[in-house]
């Protein structure tokens, strides 16, 4: 899956994405970072060079992604405390938490390819539209006699997951293509932390509107929490609509190297570094996402369970 983050390490140690790899004939060892379009910059210049427009477009996407991935745990807990809904079955709760990750896999596999074929701008607007539609749809979930509200939520979480999955490789590749300053790229990735923190902050802020000893109007809390990410995502529409494909992308689009199969582009000399980088990232994600999204079950496994006598604040 980490192949879809569009980051590969060439034999000379430079990190590039498929769209950033120029054509140098048959010499697989000639991949360099001159495609970044910053000819005289170093990876660590004396003054950090931040492309703020790119930071907004890419970093905002990272923040929205992380919020959507991690808020669902608190949302399911809040929904289970809502008298009008009742608690979800173990299957419903598990699917609601996991289906977004399944959608993210589909989004990663799809929109990395779409971005190379149709351009960064088109792909970014598509993924952003899916994120907004999935967030609003999740918040507007409803149930009928024949269709439980939790299954409706799962459907919209799948749509949201596809958009989130597409955002990840696009934000990563655009961040790298906009600057050669690795610290600036790191700053963009740090926005994931703000998105992770934003989830419980939004939930607890919404709960502050209601008495701490009652469960009334919790239906409004979880709906607003799910819809909230549509606000920052909506603010990104205009900047992304006005964005252009990077020079590095335009310079190599249509070349034989750009159109070559992935395995041929990587070459035999890159696999060790790629597997080392992607393997560590994969192991980190298993632990990080697993413990974060399934935090409720993790707490219960070690005896940190909530009680029916606790307020919504205390349980969340």
Query: Percent helix among the residues?
Result: 55-70%
Q: Find the count of extended strands (DSSP E, 2+ residues).
A: 2
Q: How would you spell out the order of helices and strands?
A: EEHHHHHHHHHHHHHHH
Largest sheet: 2 strands, antiparallel
Strand arrangement, major sheet = 1-2
Radius of gyration: 21 Å
Q: Tell me, rounded to a whole number, the average pLDDT.
A: 76
**Could you name the ranges where pLDDT drops below 50 across 5 or more consecutive residues?**
1-44
Strand portion: under 5%
Shape: elongated
Return the structural class.
Answer: mainly alpha
Distance between the termini: 32 Å
- Total helical segments: 15
């Amino acid at each position: 899956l980490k192949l879809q983050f569009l980051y590969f390490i060439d034999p000379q140690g430079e990190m590039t994405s498929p769209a950033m790899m120029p054509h140098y004939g048959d010499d697989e060892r000639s991949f360099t970072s001159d495609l970044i379009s910053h000819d005289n910059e170093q990876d660590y210049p004396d003054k950090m060079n931040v492309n703020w427009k790119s930071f907004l477009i890419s970093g905002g996407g990272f923040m929205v992604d992380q919020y959507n991935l991690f808020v669902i745990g608190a949302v399911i807990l809040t929904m289970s405390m809502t008298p009008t809904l009742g608690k979800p079955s173990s299957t419903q709760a598990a699917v609601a938490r996991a289906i977004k990750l399944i959608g993210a896999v589909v989004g990663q596999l799809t929109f990395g390819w779409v971005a190379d074929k149709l351009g960064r701008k088109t792909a970014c607007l598509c993924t952003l539209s899916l994120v907004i539609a999935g967030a609003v749809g999740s918040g507007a979930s409803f149930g009928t006699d024949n269709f439980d509200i939790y299954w409706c939520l799962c459907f919209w979480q799948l749509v949201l997951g596809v958009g989130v999955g597409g955002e990840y490789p696009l934000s990563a590749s655009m961040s790298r293509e906009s600057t050669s300053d690795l610290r600036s790229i790191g700053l963009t990735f740090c926005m994931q932390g703000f998105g992770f923190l934003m989830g419980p902050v939004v939930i607890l802020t919404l709960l502050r509107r209601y008495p701490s000893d009652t469960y009334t109007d919790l239906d409004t809390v979880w709906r607003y929490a799910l819809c909230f990410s549509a606000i920052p995502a909506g603010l990104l529409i205009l900047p992304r609509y006005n964005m252009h494909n990077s020079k590095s992308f335009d310079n190599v689009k249509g070349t034989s190297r750009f159109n070559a199969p992935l395995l041929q582009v990587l070459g035999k000399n890159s696999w060790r570094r790629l597997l080392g980088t992607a393997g560590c990232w994969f192991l980190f994600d298993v632990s990080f996402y697993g413990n974060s999204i399934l935090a409720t079950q993790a707490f219960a496994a070690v005896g940190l369970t909530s009680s029916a006598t606790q307020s919504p604040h205390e349980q969340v």
